[in-house]
Amino acid sequence: MSADTAQAIRVLIVDDHEVLAMSLGHVLDAEPDLHTVGAARSLAEARSLLPQVLPDVVLMDHRLPDGDGVAAIAQLRELRPSTQYVVLTASTADQVLVSAIEAGASGFLSKSRSLDEVRSAVRAAHGGEAVISPEMLARLLPRLNRNRNSANTDLTERELDVLSLLADGLTNSEIATELVVSVHTVRNHVANISTKLGAHSKLEVLSIAIRQGLLPGR
C-alpha cells in the first residue's frame, strides 16, 4: 500500500448489485484521496468485513438480501463507532429518509445521482458534514420523532446557536461565517454537541435534538 493510499479515505461498499458495486469502486479508486477497501453483498458480509477493513465511510444500500441496511446501521456502528454511513437508496419516500437520519447516517443519496455526487458525498461524510440539501432537511425535520419531556440542558448558549444553524442546513464553513469564528471553533462546538447528545453524525445530532425538544419550532 502506497503512502497516498494509506492516507486516503477508506470506503466500504455494501450493495448486492455487483455491477453497481464494481462501478462505484472503480470511480472511487480513480481519485487520489479515496480508496475502496472492500465490497459486501449482504449485511452478514458487511458485519464480517467491517472490523477487518476498518472503513472511514460505508456506502450502504437500503435494501439487501438479508435485511434493511438502514436498520442495521446501529448494530454495525458498534463494531466501529467512528465509521460514517451514507445510505444509497432507490426510494425517496420520506419515511426511509427519516429512518436513515434517526439511525445516525451522515446522509443519503438516490441511486439516480451522478458519480460526482457520490464522490462528494464520501468526502463530506468523512469531513463530518451532512449529506443532505437544506431544502430536504427542512422538509424532514418536522417528521422526526419527538419527546419533549427529556430535554437536555447541558448545551451552552453558543452550542445552541450552532445547533440551530445546523438545523438550517449550514456547513461548518457557513456557520463559521455566520458566527464570525473559525471553522476549527465550529468543529469543536459540533464535536462537543455530538458528545453531549451521544450522536455520531450531524443528522443524528438533529434527530436527538428534535426528540429532546432542543429545536423549538422545527
Biggest β-sheet strands, sense, barrel? 5 strands, parallel
Number of helices: 11
| Run of helices and strands | HEHEHEEEHEHEHHHHHH
Tally of extended strands? 7
Computed over alpha carbons, the radius of gyration is: 17 Å
Question: Which blocks of ≥5 consecutive residues have pLDDT under 50?
Answer: none
Q: How would you portray this structure in words?
A:
By secondary structure, the chain is of the alpha/beta class. The chain is 51% helix and 15% strand. It has helices at 3-7, 18-29, 43-53, 69-79, 94-102, 115-126, 134-140, 157-167, 172-179, 183-197, 202-211; strands spanning 9-14, 34-40, 57-61, 63-64, 67-68, 84-89, 107-110. The strands form two sheets. A five-stranded parallel β-sheet has the order 2-1-3-6-7, sandwiched between helices. A two-stranded antiparallel sheet has the order 4-5. Strand 6 (84-89), helix 5 (94-102) and strand 7 form a beta-alpha-beta unit. Helix 3 (43-53) runs parallel beside helix 4 (69-79) and helix 9 (172-179) packs across helix 10.
Quick structural overview:
The protein is α/β, with parallel strands linked by helices and 218 residues long. The protein is built from eleven helices and seven strands.
